[in-house]
């Protein structure tokens, strides 16, 4: 279980959210709902260390952390809205990069893991293609594979269905529900209510819950 308590973020005098608290159970999908521009993306960037919080604490598996502690933020894998794949690297190389450079994994072990993820996410045939050769849904699945390659405690998604057609959206739904069955905790920021209805165990209404 992950619990976030009294998380606050502001830019200068502008308060984005204040004293925010939420809980994500093991193997749960929590959808954070609300209109665009309200601060949902800032929330997950703060949880993953890409933005600095003014205050806040986190508890993960019974251990307490400052919200900005890399030991906490590194346990949350982020899938970006615009995918952020490296255009000069193949699908396989995109997945391998962080395990090899950040975790210093043995290359054979990293390649075995990458191949397993490619198979799991239906990307084996695209392994040697470059991002420009992929559909939006395939790019989204590569982003998920890249996050999973780092063995995070939580996968966080920023508007994962944005710009995707119905078929690609269903593929993302299928992947998320499969990961849920495997016990992966997932946090998804979205304003796509039909999508949230399909995947979420619980919802967090950002507009109603957040203090400013």
UniProtKB/TrEMBL annotation:
InterPro entries: AAA+_ATPase, ABC_transporter-like_ATP-bd, ABC_transporter-like_CS, MetN_ABC_transporter-like, P-loop_NTPase. Residues 2-210 form the ABC transporter domain. The keyword Heme does not apply. GO terms for molecular function: ATP binding. The keyword Nucleotide-binding applies. It comes from the Bacteria. It holds the Pfam family ABC_tran. Keywords: ATP-binding, Nucleotide-binding, Transport. PANTHER family: AMINO ACID IMPORT ATP-BINDING PROTEIN (PTHR43166), PHOSPHONATES IMPORT ATP-BINDING PROTEIN PHNC (PTHR43166:SF4). Belongs to the ABC transporter superfamily. This is Amino acid ABC transporter ATP-binding protein. It comes from Fructobacillus papyrifericola.
